Amino acid sequence: MAKKVKYFYNSHTLKYEKVELSVKKKVLRVLGYLATVTVFSVVAVTIAYNVIDSPKEKKLKRDISQLNMQYDILKKRIKQMDMVVSDLQERDNNIYRTVFESEPITSDEWQTTFAGINRYKALESANFGALMIETTRKLDELAKKMYIQSKSYDYLAKEVKNKDKLLASVPAIQPVSNKDLTRMASGYGYRIHPIYKTRKFHAGMDFTSPTGTPIYATGDGVVITAGQERGYGNEVKINHGYGYQTLYGHMSKIAVRVGNRVKRGEVIGYVGSTGASTGPHCHYEVHKNGQPVNPINFYFNDLSPAEYEKMLELSSRNNQSFD
């Protein structure tokens, strides 16, 4: 196709003349075109860069998302472990050391900060430095707590040798056979009452078992109650000395009498549903110096650390009690 020729009317010569562009105008026209294209390209690239992710950016975002998810899982696990260690500290100070008449570990001794030492400076320049520093600090704190607790147990192990009679008396097992931890139905604390359907303080733990399942004394002691009582039906109470008493309720049959001396693990009765009960179970309480305490802290002859953690989770559920 032939190039289109342009003409203009020359008023001086009174003729139509062919339009001829000078070199300068041609250069300016080309430069203007190039400038327009350049500006448009820059705008397009800028928009694409800020709105549309490149394959590399998409991969980085996926990696960061995965990292954050794993970090959240790790934080939850560390929190769970810290709760278990904190509970061990509580048991150590308020039960074990009380039993052995030892001074509790002070808050200063439990202090887990590392003041004056910049232990994490090397992590500051690393990728995800803030996350790494926070996680490392929490693990350091947890490790120190576990070390202090370990040393405390070493101390208590020495005390055990001279406290044989006391240790035999302290309630230290579950009142029914519960090796797979499936019989723990309701824990200590506020629960929904099965009959009145209101929140009521549940001063013990309920263990569901078939009627006739043996119930065991959880420590050496003397039977002080053995008979029909209001609320807990057929009930046995044992005085273990050293400020400890235990209660076993809703028995179908009682196997001991008031004044009997019993040993830990001896059968004192059988599971039933007498009294204010909605099904066969053993209601079990531990009292220290006349006040109910959480029985879960006294199964140290029965449970491994992993089993204790599982029992702690089961007993913490805010469910309905059986009495």
Structure characterization notes:
This protein is an alpha+beta fold and 323 residues long. The chain has three domains: 7-51; 63-162; 174-315, Glucose Permease (Domain IIA) (Distorted Sandwich), CATH 2.70.70.10. The chain is built from six helices and 14 strands. It has helices at residues 23-51, 55-99, 107-110, 129-160, 164-169, 305-315, and strands at residues 7-10, 15-18, 184-186, 189-192, 199-202, 205-208, 214-216, 221-229, 233-241, 244-254, 261-262, 267-271, 281-288, 291-293. A hairpin with a 2-residue loop joins strand 13 (281-288) and strand 14. Helix 2 packs parallel to helix 4 (129-160). It is elongated, with a radius of gyration of 39 Å. This is Metalloendopeptidase-like membrane protein. It comes from Solitalea canadensis (strain ATCC 29591 / DSM 3403 / JCM 21819 / LMG 8368 / NBRC 15130 / NCIMB 12057 / USAM 9D).
Q: Poorly predicted ranges (pLDDT <50, ≥5 residues)? A: none
Straight-line N-to-C gap: 102 Å
SS strand fraction: 15-25%
CATH architectural grouping of the largest domain: Distorted Sandwich
Continuous helix count: 6
* Fraction of helical residues: 25-40%
